[in-house]
Amino acid sequence: MAAAFAYVTVVGDVSEVFETRNGAPLRRVKRVVCAVGHDHYPINMPSLDDVLDRAHVVSLPMRVRFRGVDTREALLIDGPAGWGEFAPFLEYGDDEASSWLASALESAYEGVPPLPREVVEVNATVPAVSAADVSGILDRFPGCRVVKVKVAEPGQSLCDDVARIDAVRAARPDALIRVDANRGWNVEQAIEASRVLGPLDYMEQPCATLAELAEVRRRAGVCVAADESIRRADDPYRVAREGAADVAVIKVAPLGGVRRVCELAEFMHARGLGLTVASALDTAVGMNAGLAAAALVGERAAGLATQEFFSLKTLPSRASSRTGACPQCWSRLSLIVWLRSLRPAGVGTGGWSVCEGCGNGASWRAQRCYAKPAPCSWICTRFGVWVC
């Protein structure tokens, strides 16, 4: 059956947002639930009908191509405890996608645990763009002291990676740089890269296997971080047991929710691994869970500023050199208003104040979409928006 789309106009760079009850993400929920059953989930599984009644499907275009994605589709669940997000990448099978659904249901039906701190530092992220485009990308992340750079892109060379990182250093000479190869190198290529890329915070997932990561760590003398070897592994604890990495990059949705991330982080920390909480190209809804996890267990600048790559309306910019996020202020109300802001005129009008506790103010208006971060590196999340 053809999907029945409702056309919605919003104020901002997104000209269309589609909301449907018969779209592919909804069919994916049915397929995942049927494939893995209820025992997979850490909570009492709600009925499928209840989940679908609470579901909204959105399609969000990207400013730049990131991880091969031009448009991000997500299913958002308006649950009794908050909003949850289900957005596994298309190449993931149902069993792997089930962890993403578990995370969405946890956020929607249980909510996040109490948070112990109010500020989370975030890093800038530079996709595998040309060196000439680096400065423009970094302009979206003023104040960030850490920059993550994508490398080993298919069809590109190590020379392209060197040029991109040189451009980052030229634009941000004091920045700490980490690179992410997404398993794109073999051991010898990773070692060669470590020699020519200059000082690095760490090299994330340079190779595919744990044995290769351990060898790079031993031979290259560079700090190695594991990402796919944790979030896409049958046993995410194995990387720590085998001493294959110095840093664990942990992502809420692929690992099944904030509570499971906290359990995994405790295990990693006890074995001497550093921790970076990052996003899986989440929308503002999924970023909520990431901010909570980072506030609970994160140690290093978190990869939670990737909403800069979504084409959504910004708040008015106010100068800020701060680099962090305020997860303590996040509330369910923000996401209710965010979704209402994507609906037709006359729906969701209001004048809620934004983060009085943090000293920043703004107000909601009919059809104003404040879901996208303003061009600063602090996230003031009491009402789900970035504020400078």
What's this model, at a glance?
Helices cover 32% and strands 18% of the residues. It has 388 residues and is α/β, with parallel strands linked by helices.
Describe this structure in words.
The chain is an alpha/beta fold and 388 residues long. The chain contains 13 helices and 14 strands. The strands form four sheets. The protein has a seven-stranded parallel β-sheet with strand order 6-7-8-9-10-11-12. Strands 3-4-5 form a three-stranded antiparallel β-sheet, sandwiched between helices. A two-stranded antiparallel sheet has the order 1-2. The radius of gyration is 20 Å and the shape is globular.
List keywords for this structure.
13 helices, 14 strands, 388 residues, disordered C terminus, alpha/beta
Task: Map the helices and strands.
Layout: E1 6-8, E2 17-19, H1 24-36, H2 48-53, E3 55-66, E4 69-78, E5 83-86, H3 94-109, E6 124-126, H4 134-138, E7 146-150, H5 158-171, E8 176-180, H6 187-196, E9 203-204, H7 210-220, E10 224-226, H8 228-231, H9 238-241, E11 247-251, H10 252-255, H11 258-270, E12 274-278, H12 284-297, E13 323-326, H13 332-340, E14 377-380
Parallel strand pairs: 6-7, 7-8, 8-9, 9-10, 10-11, 11-12, 13-14
Antiparallel strand pairs: 1-2, 3-4, 4-5
